[in-house]
Structures are given as C-alpha cells and as structure tokens.
C-alpha cells in the first residue's frame, strides 16, 4: 500500500507526528457450536468435484488460546484533523475457489479497486444487493475463464456482503475502511494495524456472529498493544 507518510513519520502541514503499530489479539469467551459440513456444496455436481473433502462453515474460526479469526479491526474514530492518505494503487482481491469466497473476510480502503475473480471452472454470480451507506449495488455473472471484474466502494461500510445466487451458501465480506489502518485477525486471533500517528483512538471490532465491540487505545511512537473478547452468540 502507498501512503502519504514515509517510514515512521506522518506530516500534517509542517509538523511531523511519530507513528506506531497497534498489535493485539481477539479471543472468544465460551465454546461456539461446532462448525458443520456444508452439505449442499458436497452434493452439488460441480462443487463436490472441486474440493477434496468435507468443507465446513466458518462461523467461528477459533485457534490457539481461544483466538478468534476473521475479525475486522479498524480505526473507528480519532484520526487527526487534516489527516490524509492516498488510496492504494494495488488492488484488493476477492476470489471464488471451490465454491467459497476467499478470503471469507477481507478489508479494502474506500476508493480502492477490488478485483473479483472466479478461479472455478464453472459459473458463479456475484451479488451485492444492499448497501447501508449508498455504495452502488451490482449483480453480475462470472463463468469459466471469465476476466476479473473491478469494483470500487467509495464509502466506508463494514461490512459489504457479497453472495452467489447460483450457490446460496457462498458469502464473502469486505470491511471498507476510510483509512488504510485496519486488519483482519488470523486463525489465532492476532492482528497488526500499521503506522498510526501518535494519539488516542477508538478501535472498532466486527465479527459476523459476535457483533461489534469498541475499545479506546493510546498510540505512542512505540506503538500499543490491545486485547478484545467476544461472547459466543
């Protein structure tokens, strides 16, 4: 990603503000129900042949020490007045592989190009049917060997929900952030948000089943460490 600040300094007018990284871990309290095989996927004439074994739901991806994956973490409030970053020139990529959206949860900056691919050798369609903030909706087909389709979400929205009407178990989610300061937790719940200027912020945490959490954090030039926990719902 390309930013308007260089290395560890952000320039607001003539004043350099040191920046640090926010690292942390998100966990789940309680024991979620076991993920279940997606039976319609296995029964589908095309999809069943595209995978090598049972494919499970991804409601709660829980790893080491109760770490919770697929949580979108972003700066909800606190960026300095006049703070600007360039929209990344690189594309964020959402693929369709084995009759699933991959990744299941991803992030993009408002205004960044999102490239939507179909790596399966058969038809999918990509339907973004409803926006809470006015991002233009769309619905298009992608067949075997189809070229990737570029889409841009101009406004912050957590989450943009994509679905395939051909294969109704297929959903993918994009956290569209107003800044590049976001992350998605890995399989063990760990994340890093890079290059935040020193200051006080409200972080937002969004999980598809767990809902929303917020947490206050103060970032210094040495960075900050946070922890958050979702209850099982």
Compact summary:
With 233 residues, the chain is mainly beta. Helices cover 4% and strands 46% of the residues.
Computed CA radius of gyration, to the nearest angstrom: 19 Å
Treating each run of at least 4 consecutive H or I residues as one helix, how many helices?
Answer: 2
Extended strand count = 17
How would you sum up the global shape?
globular
N/C terminus separation: 35 Å
User: What proportion of the residues is helical, as a percent range?
Assistant: under 10%
Low-pLDDT windows of residues: 1-17
Q: Summarize the main sheet.
A: 4 strands, mixed
Average predicted local confidence, pLDDT:
91
Fold and architecture overview:
4% of the residues lie in helices and 46% in strands. The protein has helices at residues 39-43, 47-50, and strands at 9-12, 15-29, 72-77, 92-97, 100-102, 105-109, 113-116, 124-128, 138-142, 149-152, 157-163, 171-177, 182-184, 190-197, 199-207, 211-219, 224-231. A hairpin with a 7-residue loop joins strand 11 (157-163) and strand 12 (171-177). The model is unreliable at 1-17 (pLDDT under 50).
């Amino acid at each position: 990603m390309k930013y308007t600040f260089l290395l560890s300094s952000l320039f607001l007018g003539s004043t350099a503000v040191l920046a640090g990284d926010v690292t942390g871990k998100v966990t789940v309290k309680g024991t979620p129900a076991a993920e279940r095989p997606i039976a319609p996927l296995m029964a589908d004439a095309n999809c069943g042949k595209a995978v090598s074994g049972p494919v499970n739901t991804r409601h709660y991806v829980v790893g080491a020490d109760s770490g919770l994956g697929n949580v979108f973490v972003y700066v909800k409030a606190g960026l300095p007045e006049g703070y600007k970053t360039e929209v990344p020139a690189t594309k964020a990529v959402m693929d369709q592989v084995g009759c699933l959206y991959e990744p299941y949860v991803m992030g993009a900056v408002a205004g960044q190009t999102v490239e939507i691919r179909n790596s399966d050798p058969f038809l999918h369609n990509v339907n973004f049917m409803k926006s809470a903030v006015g991002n233009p909706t769309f619905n298009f087909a992608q067949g075997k060997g189809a070229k990737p389709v570029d889409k841009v979400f101009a406004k912050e929205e957590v989450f943009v929900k994509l679905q395939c009407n051909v294969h109704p178990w297929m959903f993918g989610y994009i956290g569209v952030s107003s800044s590049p300061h976001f992350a998605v937790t890995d399989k063990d719940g760990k994340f890093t948000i890079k290059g935040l200027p020193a200051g006080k912020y409200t972080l937002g945490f969004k999980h598809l089943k767990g809902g929303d959490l917020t947490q206050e954090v103060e970032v210094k030039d040495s960075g900050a460490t946070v922890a958050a926990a979702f209850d099982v719902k």
